[in-house]
Design a protein that fits this description.
Elements lengths: L2 H23 L5 H15 L1 H8 L2 H6 L1 H6 L1 E2 L1 H21 L3 H21 L1 E2 L1
Parallel strand pairs: 1-2
Helix pairs in contact: 1-2, 2-3, 6-7
Length: 122
Amino acid sequence: MNKIAKSVYVVVGFIFLGIGIVGAFLPVLPSVKFFLIASFCFVKGSKRFDKWFKGTAIYQKYLADYVRSKGMTLKQKWTILLTASAMLAFPLIRIDVLPMRIFLIVLVICKYVGILVFIKTL
C-alpha cells in the first residue's frame, strides 16, 4: 500500500476517533462502532498509530474487552442502555413535536435491540 493511502487511513482513523469521543458523551452516537472503525484505519495506516491507539485509555475502556471476547457483559450492556435512555428521556419529555418523539422512541428501541440481540453477552 502506498504512502498516500496509508495517510488517508490515518486521517480517517482520527476523524472516527473524534466522532467516537463525541459519541461517548452523546447517547445518539454509538461510540464503540466509531472506535472500531478508527482502530481498523490505524491498523491499515500505521503500526505506530495502531500501537498508540491500543495503548490509550479510550481503547482500554471501550474496546479492549469487546475485541478480545467479541461481546459484552450484561452489566456493561445495561449500563450503556440505561445511561443512553436517561439522556434521551430529557428531550423526549421536553420536545413537544410528535415526529421527533417518535424518532426518539424508535432510536431507543433500536439501541436496545442492537445491544441486547446483536452483541454477544459474556
